[in-house]
Every structure is written in C-alpha cells, then in structure tokens.
Design a protein that fits this description.
This protein has about 180 residues and is an alpha+beta fold. Helix content is about 55%, strand content about 15%. It has eight helices and four strands; from the N terminus they run ααααααβαβββα. The chain has helices spanning about 5-15, 20-35, 35-40, 50-60, 65-70, 80-95, 110-125, 155-165, and strands spanning about 95-105, 125-135, 140-145, 150. Strands 2-1-3-4 form a four-stranded mixed β-sheet. Strand 3 and strand 4 (about 150) form a beta hairpin.
Amino acid sequence: MSQTAECYAKIMLEKKDCVRREDVAALKELCQTSGAFIEALENPFVGKDEKNRIIERLVPDSLQVYVKQLRDDGSLEQIDAVCQEYERLYCKEHGIITGVLEYVFMPDENQLDGIRSFLKKEFHTKQVELILKENKKLIGGFTLTVEGQEYDMSIRERIRLMNRALNRGGKVGSC
C-alpha cells in the first residue's frame, strides 16, 4: 500500500458525512471497467477543463475533489489502491469482515445466515459480508475464504484427501 493511497483513504474516511462507501465502490468499478476514463484523465492532449467535465459527469459528487487532486498530483494510478484502502479501513472501523463463498449450488438464506453466524463468532465481529461465487469445479459443497483462512468443505477437496491417503497406503478414514 502506498503512502498516497493510505493518506487519501484516511482523509476520505474522516469525511463520513460526505463520502459514502457506495460512492467509493462506484468509483472503483468505474476505474476497473472503463479504461477510457483513466486514459482520458492522463492524456496530455485533453485539457484540464475537459478532464474536469469528465470527472463531474462520471465520478460521484462526494469523490470529485479527490479524483481531481489525484489527477493534479499525477497519481491517478493510485485510484484503485485508494478505494481498496478506504474499504479496508471502513470495514475495520465498523467491525465488518468480508468472506468469499464459492459454491456449486447456491445456498439458501438459512444456510447463508448460518455461515454468517459462524463467522461472527469465529472472528468476533459485528457484521459479515459474503461475496458469492459459483464454482462448478468444486463438484459439491463449498469453500469459504476469510482474512486469509480457507474452509474447504468441497467434494473436490474430499476426493483430493482420499487420493492422498490411498497413495500413501493409508486408510481412507485416516485423512
């Protein structure tokens, strides 16, 4: 994490009444999906007034001043890092952890609530946000990744463990 990204993220987080989490997510998505946006802002042949119009048209109001300052500082490549650091600091301040749940069949709401309850207890946190991703390669079951820890309850993992045990001449039940 660069010092620039950390500094901007901290300032944005201090402006709670102005900067909204949804706005930061929208800016991050804009930067990731529209290469033309950053290209236009970095293009020396596009005038400052035109760059301002682009920012004012596409960037949420609460973040325009920050994007303009990053542009003026020649640090536009830091926008994604600023957004990531803001999200990290926001979640830390609000007791939120984010997990990635990969599945073959979409869990129902009761199962998702059970996973959230488990994570709240396990990580001593107030709130859990799950990013849901379908992954047919798991064959069945799911994997859950949170703060660098992976809980692999997939059929693929069970098969891998059985193969390893069988290849070592062990019993399947001794995985």
